[in-house]
Amino acid sequence: MSGHSKWSSIKHKKGKEDAKRGRIFTRLIRELSTAARIGGPDPEMNPRLRGAITTAKQSNMPGDNITRAIAKGAGLEEGTTYDEIMFEGYGPAGVAILVETMTDNRNRTVADVRHVLDKYGGKMAETGSVSWMFEKKGVMYADKAAVDEDRITEAALDSGAEDVKDEGDLWMVTTALGDFETVKAAFDAKGIPYTDAELTMVPQTYIKLTGREAEKMLRLIDMLEELDDAQHVHANFDISAEEMEKLSA
Questions:
Q1: Which CATH number fits domain 17-73: 1.10.10.200, 3.40.50.150, 1.10.220.110, 3.30.70.980?
Q2: SS3 sequence of the chain
Q3: Residue of 24, 44, 85, 118 with fewest CB within 10 Å of its CB?
Q4: Domain 135-203 classification at class level
């Protein structure tokens, strides 16, 4: 068990703030459309689309919006086509950063990502220099107030999950990429409540940050996430719960 507030759990909490601002809807529409374009409009045959629909519903996106986004992606309605581009970079103290984007203008997006990295203490990296530090996994979050450790650990082990970690007021369950749907279905069948479930990039190692470096890193991540074309931002930093309290004081 880990008691650190790593970026994974910080990002999860920030997602709730993004939803309140309404920005997440734009990102979800792009993900729904792209998933439908790549894998087809049937969620039963398209795990990526199925996950995008689940996330959209959890974010209270209206059903009509979901349907239209899928139709546009599948070519049933006219719409913009987005390309997926992953940018790699470094932040303060050598923190590794991945920025997943969806864009209809590659040159604009490259310039925007580079500008934010340069302005807020980071730098662009060569393709492949950072991505090897991350592994794509399934991640599920559950509020501690809704489920105790014994129950969620038993459900995770029985369904084939890799680990259950203590992330402050959350449990974080990780799965291998191929086991994600199985574990999620098992949680649903057993009535184990979770607040979010996604496929994401999980760092193999973390860099612990404190003080000014931690503050600068959070500012950099905030600005990257504000970019219109950014879908997800991943980084391998670790800020303790105590340090987060100091920064937010």
A1: 1.10.10.200
A2: CCCCEEHHHHHHHHHHHHHHHCHHHHHHHHHHHHHHHHHCCCCCCCHHHHHHHHHHHHCCCCHHHHHHHHHHHCCCCCCCCCEEEEEEEECHHHCEEEEEEEECCHHHHHHHHHHHHHHCCCEECCCCCCHHHEEEEEEEEEECCCCCHHHHHHHHHHHCCCEEEEECCEEEEEECHHHHHHHHHHHHHHCCCCCEEEEEEEECCCEECCHHHHHHHHHHHHHHHHCCCEEEEEECEEECHHHHHHHHC
A3: 44
A4: alpha beta
